[in-house]
Amino acid sequence: MAIVIYSVVVVLLQRSDAEIPNWLFWVLSIALVAVLAWIRSIGKGHSEKSEEKKDIVKEEEHNDNNGKTQRPNFTKEEMMALGSIALSSIIVNGRPDAQAEVTIISELEGFTLDDVKNMYQNLQSDLMKNAQLLKTRFAADPVSSMNKKLYAAGFLATVIKSRTDGGSPELVEGWKKNVGYILGLPGMEMDNMVKLYNGFEHGNMNPDDAFVIFAWLSQVQYA
């Protein structure tokens, strides 16, 4: 805009019948340079402020997540299947290992008591169906589901490691087979997957639901 105004003024002066001294053109040129420098400084200041705001937003997001990677969006059906597979790996003498059970239940975000009852009561009958469900879902979209597969592998590894006995060699071998067959991630190391899982935000069960669920679990009679 400043350049346009300058050009118009110069043209008008050149078309004028009056004799225009050269110093006037110099004054106009200097004024133009000064205006352009002023506009540039304003634009630079605005740009710096915008970048500063972006940095602040990024830092706030980082603080909100506590440095954790966002948890993948599992459907309830997928999380039910994953929870059932995890549950099957912690049964000791007919009942779930108490420590590992807490790890599983705490992950079941959005689950109610009825959901958990269904998972426990249909554990054996639905086990193959749940394994096939996850295998099919993850195989159908291997690229976008990679975070889900890595998270699931880490979750299952963490559940086994959180058992009172720390997980037997047989369970570790079973985990490797599940990770390879169901999740399509052969050759994974359990300790690496636990570290990866701990780098994600975890599921958070509603405290009221958790209270009711754990109260029910404490009264369940196992054979």
Structural commentary:
The chain is mainly α and 223 residues long. The protein has helices spanning 2-15, 22-64, 76-88, 98-107, 113-121, 127-140, 146-161, 169-181, 190-198, 207-217, and strands at 91-92, 95-96. Strands 1-2 form a two-stranded antiparallel ribbon. Helix 3 packs across helix 5 and helix 7 (146-161) runs antiparallel to helix 8 (169-181).
Cα shape: globular
Unreliable stretches (pLDDT < 50, length at least 5) are 2-15, 23-28, 44-50, 52-64
Radius of gyration: 33 Å
Mean pLDDT: 79
- Give the structural class: mainly alpha
> Biggest sheet: strands side by side, in what order?
1-2
Which sequence of SSEs, written as H and E, runs from N to C? Answer: HHHEEHHHHHHH
Please count the beta strands (DSSP E, at least 2 residues each). Answer: 2
Which strand-content bin applies to the residues?
Answer: under 5%
| Count of helical regions | 10
Helix content percent band: 55-70%
Distance between the termini: 86 Å
What composes the largest sheet?
Answer: 2 strands, antiparallel
